[in-house]
Amino acid sequence: MKEMYNNYKKELKNKNNILLLVFVIFIIGLIFGSIYITILKTGEKQTIINKVNEYFLMQNKIDFEMQLSIFKNSLISNLLYFISLWLLGLSVIGIPIIVLMTFFKSFIVGFSISSIFAKYGLKGILGAFFYIFPSGIITSILSIGLATYSLVLAIKLIKAAFTKKTINFKTFMGKYFFILLISILLSILCALIDAFLSPYLLRIFTNLIK
To answer: Tens digit of pLDDT for each residue in 125-134?
Structure first.
């Protein structure tokens, strides 16, 4: 019993260490994404600002057909990202790719937020909040959680390959498939939010700053 407790305690500590590592990578990506716009050339920066302006103005023109298109694109994008992360956890070569995917996921979030500030200044606080709330926050948390579990499994596979130890795949894969199911359900929820709630929130922002 004591040995089981010690093994569980050790495994929990390892998971927490990996979670911390993934969180740090996510924060670094967020910071790099936030400052990236400051190093762009004036012409490139202006192009980004114009794209942001077009994006927000477009929210007032979104109809039901466009909402369905947003839902489909958002769902496909989320599913491809999360299923890829999940599958990479089943591969011993998946570790560096998982790290890079986590970094670039947060980089894009940081870059998007800083682009909104570049266009609207301090007024962009509300616009940035509506842009990431709540689907952006949900997908970011899910990305960190799934990346953590994927790394845990990938590291287990590497250890098993080198030490010739057997892994109780039945128990672990049961949890891993459950995480995949949660990821799919949350991807659907976030796609619905992107299509039917976010345009309304962003419309509120564009009307407030007129």
So the answer is: 999 999 999 9
